[in-house]
Design brief:
The chain is an all-alpha fold. It has six helices and no strands.
Length: about 150
């Protein structure tokens, strides 16, 4: 059963149930409550994105072209090398070598800038989702220390 003070009947102010502050009649949370935490989550996520992408742009602009040794590249990408590698270590060794070369390429030159931008976006999204999940959990379990 609702109390008259919380129901918003004529002549009585609409009062939030958990705080003695007036709530917006349109349903907005009281000032300093969940709305503020949501705003802080958005601002922090935007700051993470802005900082990471600024670093990524700086790396992209200042990156020098990757210089590879032609002899090593010719040998590592030759048919003979791949056949020897497959004979010694099997298909898994060939796959492992290809993955290793791909990952090593992510940390050099301009591709490093793309890697930083992607990791930054992933971190900002993870922070946002974790903070939002925590806020929802705290709303359902206010006695929890988390």
């Amino acid at each position: 059963m609702e109390t008259p003070a919380a129901s918003g009947k004529e002549g009585q102010p609409l009062v939030a149930k958990d705080q003695n502050r007036e709530a917006d009649p349109r349903g907005a949370p009281p000032a300093g409550g969940a709305g503020r935490r949501n705003f802080e989550t958005w601002v922090t996520s935007a700051f993470i994105l802005a900082l990471g992408w600024t670093i990524a742009v700086a790396v992209y602009v200042t990156a020098t072209p990757v210089v590879n040794d032609d002899l090593v590249d010719d040998w590592e990408h030759s048919r003979r090398y791949m056949l020897d590698l497959e004979r010694i270590g099997g298909r898994a060794a060939v796959f492992g070598t290809e993955v290793n070369q791909w990952v090593a390429g992510l940390w050099q030159g301009r591709s490093l800038a793309y890697t930083i931008a992607f990791v930054t976006a992933a971190v900002a999204l993870a922070y946002f989702l974790a903070a939002r999940s925590r806020a929802r959990y705290r709303g359902k379990h206010p006695e929890s220390p988390i």
